[in-house]
Amino acid sequence: MIILLKRNVERSKVDELLRRIHAMNVQTQEVHGVQESIIGLIGDTSAIDPEDFKSIDIVAKVKRIQEPYKKANRKFHPDDTIIDVCGRKIGGGHFQVIAGPCSVESREQMISVADSVKASGAGLMRGGAFKPRTSPYAFQGLREEGLQLLLEAKKHSGMPIVTEIMDKSHLPLFDDVDIIQVGARNMQNFELLKALGKVNKPILLKRGLSSTLDELIMSAEYIMAGGNENIIFCERGIRTFETATRNTLDLSAIPILKQRTHLPVIVDPSHAAGIRSLVEPLSMAAIAVGADGLIIEVHNDPAHALCDGAQSLTPDSFDETMQKVKKTVEFFGKTMD
Ligand code: PEP
Ligand code: MN
Fold first, then answer.
1. Whole-angstrom Cα distance, residue 33 to residue 37?
2. Model confidence over 65-97: pLDDT tens digits?
3. Does the beta carbon of 239 lie inside 6 Å of ligand 1?
4. Does the domain formed by 2-63 have CATH 3.40.50.2000?
5. pTM of the predicted model as reported, rounded to 2 decimal places
6. What is the mean predicted confidence (pLDDT) over 197-216?
7. For 132, which of 5, 29, 206, 315 is 20 to 30 Å away at the CA?
8. What CATH superfamily classification does 83-336 receive?
9. How many Cα neighbours within 13 Å face the side chain of 25?
């Protein structure tokens, strides 16, 4: 971090600022130019907020040089993190497809979707039990009962399960869930993130609708700072001026997240597009830009789905998409085991 001082400031005020910085356990280096003077902060500045210095009257500008995230930063952890979920690996050349309905609706639905997506090559199953809905009058999910049906589908198919948590008080219900999803709307629910830092399970962290990549990485850092370093990022589209799709899939996010961090990144083409026919082409694009997996909504009867039917693939169309996914993954040198 660099602090640019205003011109002709009193020495006593500079010394006071230096004392304040040293109390934060970082070293300083002063550089006096002809016109300008700067103070360089040397050491771990991740816990220092540049805003704290901006209100000091002798300070003209503050610039962060080092990223504020340490645990997620690829600089300190050059190798890809590989997340192992019951033997299914994600990251470091391992690719996984997570498939299933938006919401858990019934036992028959879960068993039939589990059987079909497994036969098509999905490695893990998704299904929302606690649903974040824009309208309080929309279907809110089967909650505890939904979790039970998911666990039945897991037992039946042997596929690990992924489901969303909305409140940290629900954590005891998630003991047998394999990957806990933090949805877009909760990406900055910091109390939830802190609670997940104490959990010994992978977390699928979805990007907020209007969140920057730095904000997404800082949310991962919250979980990692608590001790849980098993994070999978999910790019699921962001809100833009475009209305032709539900969201706009930010393909640049995948290589950027992979350059800046060592964590795996998967893509959700279903929520990104909101349109069934776009799920396959966006899946291909995601693989081409380096995604480590996909999470795709599949419903046995999309026309009667209680949530997100328009973006859900039928088991047959998922099967066709999976044929192409497998070939594309192989073409880009990754394995789906
Ligand atoms: C979901 O995956 O079911 C979901 C609600 O997605 P998002 O949080 O990305 O909107
Ligand atoms: Mn959905």
1. 6
2. 989 999 999 999 999 999 999 999 999 999 999
3. no
4. no
5. 0.94
6. 98
7. 315
8. Aldolase class I (3.20.20.70)
9. 5
